[in-house]
Write a structure and sequence with these properties.
Four Helix Bundle (Hemerythrin (Met), subunit A), 5 domains, five-stranded mixed beta sheet, elongated, disordered C terminus, ATP-binding, magnesium ion binding
């Protein structure tokens, strides 16, 4: 609490308004005097306005300005009165906001929102009146199709962000959707029409009259600034930003928002502009632009002695804004949640994304609110656009007391504390990252290449094959890609390469890491954003070397798709592996109907999510079972999104089949939720439609052909090559009758086939089959068919004989084990032996134990068999151990691009023995010939 002190100017202000109240018959008491006194501490301008508008004083004393007043009606016949009406309205509403702020009725967020809404109402009211006037004189602008066009008023800066300060100017840009001409007697071309309209709008708001001004208007943020044309078509603006847009304009247009005119058209245009503002990759190049802007501001601060400017000075408002906006620009292309306009919600989003520490985020939010409140108070005193702290002692003490401090010293201590916190965070963002300072010898060696340089620097760093390493680096240095780099890009490369060399030397596999890293560098030389990422983020560089040194698959993928470098910095990479819901949400979020664009975006999402799963496996944050399951869930999500795209394309060509349903069934490792890296998908397609059904399009097809087209489209889309790779190879040979059968089967034909003609091995495959995508009711009907098929009563000996014979036939053809290495999948005691064992258990016992029908995954099947009493608990426990070992070794092999064959060791031998023992305990022997002839080989 502050102590009341003598203040003659405040007392005179109270006396003036008390006298006014007496003349106007406005009730007045000690409470009124106290409230007016608090107002007088904050704003001399507000006292002047109240003297000119007694009705406003009466209203504030009656209800404390509980709600905004209506904007004035600007009648066409009173055009000369428009400026005065707007200015008096803006003054009255501004005083209402000061009153509520001074009395502590509104917090700073509410005041900023109120100031924003006031500016919007004035803009919209003024523009509507001017549009009506222009329509009378010039008609309305129509495009080539005769559609009426309206001006779009974009607000940038704090008005765009919905956080306008009290006496700020408003940054506006004028645009219109299409070229055209007005349809009145005095016709104008669209550009001239909207430029004149915009000029009159700015003058109506900005011009100083006897009543002051309404809002200062700044139009200099338009393309080409003050020398550019005043109103731009959307097409011209888009072309400008594609060809000439600069870094500072990306920051400016982050906050762009249509606030008057055709707001819907404005929002649509901003969607087209999004790729200019937010790049698809992690854009650490944005920091260079920010450093340049910061340097310019610092020079201005020094030149104009603005150290006490709370906006532009050190630790001021602009540093918080730039910090938040820079992180938005870097990440917003990948994270839609970071594309907001308002600062505080975006600060919260950055904390939620773990890009700013919670403690730092809280300190920045507190500092921002403090500084914005001080800024408002500075401007409220005289309705002046100032950001400088007062120099006179009286003004300083008044400001401090009005903000609740005992004196200027206490206020200044709090202010300086906030500014130090802001400055520290801002400098941490812009400071060159600690790259661990690679030895000068490596830097000198690299910069001397290709003609000079001492290879001894490589030996000293830890490379053994110095000659090979030196040759690779000289080839890189003389490559056209390196020679063609710009000065700034070459400077980045000269910092990155020595750091990569040092990390590769320390990786334990120096030459392997070096070869893989250099392959990546060749691919990103022309992509400055990726060089910037490695330069700015040493954590990403170190993680990259570690990753590629231990995984040939990930090294290939990063080299082929540098977009995956973003994943090395994603905070979620080090967290939990995405679950089923997150994987489906990420793929479902890929928008659009254009097949090429959807497949590109979907491939990027699949690559990123698969990369994240692989890193989790390699880092030991998730075991092999969890990772294989998530790879299967990711495939489910991709198939579901591709199915939506395929259905839309077939429907566009042929219409839809009424009351028809379609389903995609996953078999094999997809059905068993045990997918590997790079695995193909075993798919079967079912449909159900009314008899004689045909599609309702102009080029109608009967149901059978329509669904064949749909299935063909799904397979083709999954296999389409894009810049981000192909989604999946598809194998459809497990459908009824194999390669000779129809690509798509009706529900009833599928049921008949499984009941009447399917071999035992096909029923084995059905054990792991599950619905992946499509109509929910048809998927439920598939489950019923599967349960009735798999759960029928069978002769145990026949089941065992068929399973045994099929397994032997497969092993004879597919087992690649030899004396030196074991085939993890097809070898004796391997993964397929375990799968066949569990399938035999289900086919033999499911009729008596229906709980065996539900599981598809190996771990859940083992558990179900144990609960049913078919597997002894100790055998079940050992099978879990064996499965985990074999699967982990298999995934590790594919991660390093090795065949799934491993050397025999104690762990592998133990796992094999556990599987063989369980097979034998269940009356199956896959390891020696028996009498009897097995079924036909699978297709």
């Amino acid at each position: 609490m502050t102590t009341a002190v003598a203040n003659p100017s405040r007392d005179r202000a109270v006396a003036r308004l008390q006298a006014l109240a007496a003349r106007e018959g406005i009730p007045w008491d000690s409470g009124a005097a106290a409230r007016v006194a608090r107002l007088a501490e904050v704003s001399a301008w507000a006292i002047d306005v109240l003297e000119r508008q007694p009705a406003l004083l009466a209203r504030l004393l009656a209800d404390d300005g509980a709600g905004p007043a209506q904007a004035p009606a600007l009648a066409p016949e009173q055009r000369a009165e428009w400026p005065a009406l707007l200015r008096r309205y803006r003054a009255a509403e501004s005083v209402r906001l000061i009153w509520r702020d001074a009395l502590g009725l509104d917090d700073v967020d509410t005041t900023l929102a109120g100031t924003t809404r006031l500016a919007e109402r004035c803009l919209q009211t003024a523009l509507a009146a001017l549009e009506a006037d222009f329509a009378q004189r010039h008609g309305v602008v129509r495009d080539g199709h005769g559609q009426a066009q309206r001006l779009v008023v974009f607000a940038l800066g704090k008005l765009g962000g919905g956080e306008l300060n009290f006496s700020s100017d408003v940054d506006l840009v004028y645009a219109y959707p299409h070229e055209g001409e007005s349809d009145g007697a005095r016709a104008l071309h669209a550009e001239a029409y909207f430029a004149r309209l915009g000029q009159q709008l700015a003058r109506l708001l900005d011009e100083v009259t006897a009543d002051g001004f309404c809002h200062r208007v700044d139009l200099r943020l338009r393309p080409h600034g003050s020398v550019g044309r005043l109103a731009w078509s959307f097409a011209a603006m888009e072309q400008y930003f594609q060809r000439e847009g600069r870094d500072w304009e990306r920051y400016a247009w982050q906050k762009a928002r249509p606030v008057a005119g055709d707001i819907e058209a404005g929002e649509r245009f901003l969607e087209t502009l999004r790729p200019f503002v937010y790049r698809r990759y992690l854009d650490f190049g944005a920091l260079d632009g920010l450093r340049a802007m910061k340097a310019a501001i610092a020079a201005e601060v020094a030149r104009k002695e603005l150290a006490d400017d709370i906006k532009r000075g050190p630790g001021g408002i602009r540093e918080i804004e730039f910090l938040v906006q820079a992180l938005q620009l870097i990440r917003g292309g990948r994270e839609p949640a970071l594309r907001g306009r308002a600062l505080l919600p975006m600060l919260e989003a950055l904390v939620a994304q773990r890009l700013i520490a919670p403690q730092a985020g809280a300190a920045l939010a507190e500092a921002y609110r403090f500084l914005r409140r001080v800024e408002n108070r500075l401007q409220m005193w005289a309705d002046a656009q100032t950001h400088r702290l007062p120099e006179q002692d009286e003004a300083r003490e008044r400001l401090a007391r009005g903000l609740g401090f005992a004196d200027w010293t206490a206020f200044r201590a709090a202010l300086d504390g906030h500014r130090r916190a802001v400055g520290a965070e801002f400098e941490a963002l812009l400071a060159p990252r600690d790259r661990g300072a690679p030895p000068d010898a490596l830097a000198r060696y690299w910069q001397a290449l290709p003609d000079h340089g001492e290879p001894q620097a490589l030996a000293d760093a830890g490379f053994e094959d110095v000659e090979d390493a030196d040759g690779l680096l000289r080839d890189l240095a003389r490559s056209p890609g390196v020679r063609g780099l710009s000065g700034s890009a070459r400077a980045r490369l000269d910092r990155v390469v020595p750091a990569l060399l040092q990390a590769a030397a320390a990786s334990g596999r120096p030459m392997l890491a070096l070869r893989r890293v250099l392959a990546l560098l060749q691919n990103i030389l022309r992509r400055s954003a990726y060089l910037a990422l490695l330069d700015e983020q040493p954590a990403a560089l170190a993680r990259l070397v570690d990753t590629v040194a231990h995984s040939a698959l990930l090294a290939e993928r990063v080299a082929a798709y540098p977009l995956l470098l973003d994943e090395l910095l994603d905070a979620r990479v080090a967290g939990e592996v995405p679950d089923r819901a997150a994987l489906h949400a990420a793929c479902a979020a890929v928008e659009g109907d254009d097949a090429e664009a959807v497949l590109q975006a979907l491939n990027e999402a699949r690559q990123a999510l698969g990369f994240r799963i692989a890193l989790a496996l390699r880092d030991g944050r998730a075991d092999a079972v969890a990772c294989a399951q998530r790879l299967a869930w990711l495939a489910d999500a991709v198939v579901a999104r591709v199915l939506r795209l395929a259905e839309a394309e077939v429907a566009a060509a042929h219409g839809r089949v009424p009351q028809a349903r379609f389903a995609v069934i996953g078999y094999g490792s997809l059905g068993g939720e045990e997918l590997g890296f790079g695995s193909d998908l075993d798919l079967v397609f079912l449909y159900h439609a009314p008899e004689a059904a045909v599609s309702d399009g102009a080029r109608a097809l009967d149901a059978a052909r329509w669904f064949v087209r749909l299935a063909q489209k799904v397979v083709a889309l999954l296999g389409t090559a894009t810049a981000a790779g192909r989604l999946y190879d598809v194998d459809v040979r497990l459908r009824p009758d194999g390669a000779k059968g129809l690509l798509v089967t009706t529900r009833d034909a599928f049921a008949d086939y499984q009941r009447e003609r399917a071999w035992t091995w096909e029923h084995q495959a059905l054990v792991r089959a599950r619905g992946v995508a499509g109509d929910a009711t048809l998927l439920a009907e598939f489950e019923d068919i599967r349960a009735r098929t798999v759960g029928r009563t069978r002769e145990p000996a026949a089941v065992r004989a068929d399973v045994r014979d099929m397994r032997r036939r497969m092993r004879a053809e597919l087992d690649r084990s030899d004396a030196a290495a074991f085939d993890l999948k097809q070898g004796e005691g391997g993964l397929v032996d375990l799968e066949f064992l569990l399938q035999a258990i289900v086919l033999e016992h499911a009729h008596a134990h229906p709980a065996l029908l539900a599981p598809r995954t190996t771990p859940r099947l083992i558990d179900a068999a144990a609960r049913a009493g078919v597997l002894a608990p100790d055998i079940a426990a050992r099978l879990h151990e064996a499965h985990a070992v074999l699967l982990a070794r298999g995934l590790a092999s594919t991660l390093d691009r090795q065949p799934r064959r491993v050397r025999y060791d104690e762990t592998i031998e133990t796992a094999r023995a556990q599987v063989r023992a369980a097979v034998a305990a269940c009356g199956l022997r896959f390891d020696r010939d028996e009498e009897g002839k097995g079924p036909a080989a699978p297709p």
